[in-house]
Amino acid sequence: MRTNRRCIWTAAAVALAAFLPAFRAVDRAQLMYVGSGARDAATGIYAFRFDPTTGKATPLGLAIEARGASFLAIHPNRKLLYAVASLGGQNGGAVSAFTIDRDTGKLALVNTAASRGSGPCFVAVDRTGKNVLVAHYTVGTVAALPIAPDGRLGEPTAFVEHHGSSVNPERQKEPHAHSINVSPDNRFAVAADLGTDRLEIYRFDAGRGSLAPNDPPHASVRPGAGPRHFAFHPSGRYAYVINELGSTVTAFSYDGARGALTEIQTITTLPAVFQAANYPAEVLVHPSGKFLYGSNRGHDSIAVFAIDARRGTLTPVEHVSTQGKWPRNFGMDPAGGYLIVANQESGNVVAFRIDRTTGRLTPTGQTLEVPAPMCVRFVE
C-alpha cells in the first residue's frame, strides 16, 4: 500500500514539474501595446503578449480601432489605458480612456474627453492614478483631466498656455509643448517645450488636479536645442531631456524639495562622423539607473549612455541601428531586460536584449509589422 502511495505521489510530482514551466511562463507574460499613427481609419492600437524571459512578442491583433492613437499611457492599476485623440476642428484635441482585457489584450472604450488644445502629442497618468496629463504640440498648452473610479475622464481641471519663442525660425516661432512628466514624489510636473527651449515646472496637486507655476518656474536648455521628451532618474537626484533640434541630451541635477533643475551636462546623441539631418525623439533611463537610451531619427539608431551614479553625467557607450527608419519611440519591459523600438516610417517594431552589466543592445532577431508604429507600452 505504501509503495502504491509512493508511486502515486511520484507521478503527481513529475506531472506538476512538467506543468510548472508553462504555468510560470503564462504568469510572467505581459501585455505590450503599440500605438499607430497611420492615417487609415482601420488602424489603432495593437496588442502583443510579451514574454520577458525570452523577449518574444506574440501578436494578438488590433486591440481597438482608434484613429490618431499615437501616444499611450498605462494607469498604475494596469486595468486602464489612455491615448491621445482628436475630436476634429480647431482645439479639437482629446484623450480617450480604455479598459484592458488581460486575457485577450482587447481594449474597450470608456469615453473620450476634450483636452482644450490642438495637436495632442503626449499623455501621462500621475502616480496616484487620479489624473491624466496631456501636452498639445500645435498650440503649446498642457492640461490635466480627472480620472473617475471607473476610469472615465472628466473635463480639464487645469489648463496652461505657454508663451515665448526661440532662435530657430522654422520650428521655434511659438510654443510647442511636447511632453509633460510628473516627478518621482508626484509633487511637480515638468513640461518640455520645443518652441521656447524651456522646461516649464509646475507644482502639481493630484487631489485637485491643479498645475501652478513653480518657483523657479522653468529651466532652460541651449538656444535652438528644442527639448522634446524628459525622464527622471530612479534615484530622484537627476533628470534628462532629449533635444530634437540640437541632437543632444541635457542632464540636470534635480532638487526634489524645490522642484528645481540645474544643468550639469549637454552631450550629443550622434557619432562624430554623422553630419546629416537628425531629430532625436525618445529618452528613457534604465530601471537600474545605470544607463540612458535615446532614439535618433535620421541616423536611425539608439544612442546608449552610461550614467555616473555620483554625478549623474553621461558617457557614450554605443550607437545601435534600429533596423528600420525613423524610430519615433521605444519602450522597456518593467524588468529592464528588453528594449522595443517603434520605427514609424518603415512600419516595424524591433526587439533588443539589454546587457544589464554594460547597457549594450543586441537584436533578438524578432521584428513585428505594425503600420506607422509610434509608441510602445507594457502592462505587467
Characteristic terms for this protein:
single chain, 52% strand, mainly beta, 28 strands, four-stranded antiparallel sheet, disordered N terminus, 380 residues
Distance between the termini: 47 Å
Largest sheet at a glance? Answer: 4 strands, antiparallel
Share of helical residues? under 10%
Strand order of the biggest β-sheet:
3-2-1-28
User: Counting H and I runs of at least 4 residues, what is the number of helices?
Assistant: 1
**Which percent range describes the beta-strand content?**
over 45%
Number of beta-strand segments: 28
Outline type: globular
**Mean pLDDT, as a whole number?**
93
Q: Radius of gyration, Cα only, in angstroms?
A: 22 Å
- List unreliable stretches of 5+ residues: 1-5, 7-26
Instruction: Report the oligomer.
Output: single chain
**Structure class:** mainly beta
Please write the string of helix (H) and strand (E) elements: HEEEEEEEEEEEEEEEEEEEEEEEEEEEE
Short note summarizing the structure:
The protein is built from 1 helix and 28 strands. The chain has one helix at 2-28, and strands at residues 30-36, 44-51, 56-65, 72-74, 80-86, 93-100, 107-114, 120-125, 131-136, 141-146, 158-161, 177-182, 188-193, 198-205, 210-220, 227-232, 238-243, 248-255, 260-268, 279-285, 291-297, 301-307, 314-321, 327-332, 338-343, 348-354, 361-369, 373-379. A 4-stranded antiparallel β-sheet has the order 3-2-1-28, with helices on one face. A 4-stranded antiparallel β-sheet has the order 4-5-6-7, with no helix packed on it. Strands 8-9-10-11 form a 4-stranded antiparallel β-sheet, with no helix packed on it.
